[in-house]
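yo, Universal stress protein family protein is done. seq:
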Amino acid sequence: MTPSALMIHLTPGQSNEKLLQLGADLAERLKVSQVVGIAGCQPVQVYGEGSFYVSGDILDLDRAEIDKELGEAEAAFRAAFVGKPARLEWRSTVDYRLIADYIANEMRAADLLLTMPEQEVSVLDTSRRVLVADLVLRTGRPILVANPEVSKLDLDNVVVGWKESREARRALHDALPLLALAGRVTVLEIAAEEDMPEARRRVGDVVSWLMGHDIAASGRTTVSRGNDAAELAAQAEELKAGLLVGGAYGHNRLRELVLGGVTRDLLLKPARCSFISH
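structure:
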């Protein structure tokens, strides 16, 4: 299915320039008819009992800063799409609930969410911070996590990290519109040595399925040496992959994954863009 709407999650109070450049280019390549920019902030939260007091000036200053940051984010979003054919819409909120919950609900209006990897900030700072893990688990939509150093999605070589699971099948299907634009797709499975015959058969099936969709694809299997995340990264580097496609495995939070190391690296330390479905 061809996507019709792309949602871009901007982080208030920081530069979103490269993310927006990537989003504008991607919207044109996918020929989406609508692009939704979205951002959220939590106001300062005050905890205390009895005689605990916080000046109203502090709350007013915080709200003024939030309004300023959201306004700047919207202006940057609209400026990035000047002259582009897609219809634009801006959505934002100031709310005490988690920003990830707000974005997940709004994703009913889009096919794909574009966002940045999690920032290394205090775990206590939730005013601007969004856990990408929460987005993956809650949106019910695929998420493209952008490499913060790139302004265009490189689709010359794409690697699909395969595992015999519902999540991997879902990710592959969701990624079809992007894979159709790829120069070459490599389906990679990392498996135990005794499982290599079955791994080759599985990868062959996936390659045949992709070729049935007119996607240039080939397969590769490699023996697991205990650190699948490192092996996947090494293989992607060797293949000069600009995009890595994979399923997110887990429940509750992605930090409790069976394959936590693999998905955690995709979300938190992307050396390339990552397309993830759950």
